[in-house]
# Entry
Amino acid sequence: MSDASARVADSTGNWVDTVAPQWARPYLRLSRFDRPIGSWLLLMPCWWSAALAAGMAHDIGRLPLIIVLFFIGAFVMRGAGCTWNDITDRDLDARVERTRSRPLPSGQVSVTQALIFLVAQALIGLVVLLQFNRFAILTGIASLVIVAIYPFMKRITWWPQIVLGLAFSWGALMGFAVTFARIDVTALVLYAGAIAWVIGYDTIYAHQDTEDDALIGIKSTARLFGAHTHQALIMFYGLAVMLIGIALASGDARWPAWLGLLAFALHLVWQIMRLRINDPALCLRLFKSNRDAGLLLFAGLLADAVMRAV
# Structure
């Protein structure tokens, strides 16, 4: 199958399938613009840290611009990361029912074309990064090491979600790097809390593929936890809430931020209560709902920043 209009099995009926030009569809699928949830999840820690740092600085003058730049950067760099992931995983993806229709294993694009597209996305991300101070630029570039090694982790460890967490939570550091040109204890604790959140939600996501993963030898926390997934989620989601709470206390956050954290925590509890690990469609819905959880926390942090700047 090499038809550029051919749809990806686990993403159908979206704007890429129905509106985008045929020539662009394989590239938009490589960067997951047909499934933007990952970009939103990458963005959430960026927005959390930007709002918390602005509140600590009692200055929201640059916050709207930072929010927009983080939005662009998250979508572009998540696309670059997914393109790299698909290049490294193309042989494995061809052996998994859910992923064999992706552009590379299905032959819609060549590896060379994918590499060129990867470089183009990375250059756009660099343009965004260059809008910040030197410390923030270096901090952003440092994340590329983690992004580069992540696709190989599921071949060698049962904990690839930790490495994903290190990458997807990097934005928790970026808001402080941009605002203060430094990374302090508050930023590091927020980063740790975000990592715990990522491990939890990506474990839910990985339960879609446990049977295929077992057949081809792919490791994940979903396979590791198995029937004990609910208990593991209680631990990791609980750790996420606790660490983010410590970050809020360290940053002298006011009541709107704590209200946002409460809403975030209740959403995570709801996920655990609803989860059925043998229902792939439900796992996907619960995984996607983490965007809403993240936005609830961001709303509280944003209100806190505005309150403190007045």
